TrEMBL record:
Annotated GO MF terms: transferase activity
Protein name per the record: Sulfurtransferase TusA family protein
Domain of life of the source: Bacteria
UniProt keyword Transferase, yes or no: yes
Pfam families hit by this protein: TusA
InterPro entries per the UniProt record, alphabetical: TusA-like (IPR001455), TusA-like_sf (IPR036868)
Family membership: Belongs to the sulfur carrier protein TusA family.
Ranges of residues in domain UPF0033: 6-30
Keywords: Plasmid, Transferase
Organism: Azospirillum humicireducens
Length: 80
């Protein structure tokens, strides 16, 4: 099953985590979610979120977007 994608670019703490949690809560255990964020604080927030829930941070990378911002990409597996 392909991963779902959530674009929270332009949003600042705590909105990226809140929207991620809301979507993960509607997903089945084992499903994967790719989150795209631009908030630099999200690096700490997503690691903490996954460490304090049963969700797993599978990967984290950065990449530039079309307006030369840094986009933080998180791949999370829904725990269960």
């Amino acid at each position: 099953m392909p991963a779902r994608e959530l674009d929270v670019k332009g949003l600042h703490c705590p909105l990226p985590i809140l929207r991620t949690r809301a979507l993960l809560d509607r997903m089945e255990p084992g499903e994967e979610l790719v989150v795209l964020a631009t908030d630099p604080a999200s690096v700490i927030d997503f690691k903490h979120f996954c460490n304090t829930t049963d969700n797993v941070l599978l990967a984290h990378e950065t990449q530039p977007d079309e307006v030369h911002q840094t986009v933080f990409v998180y791949r999370i597996r829904r725990g269960g």
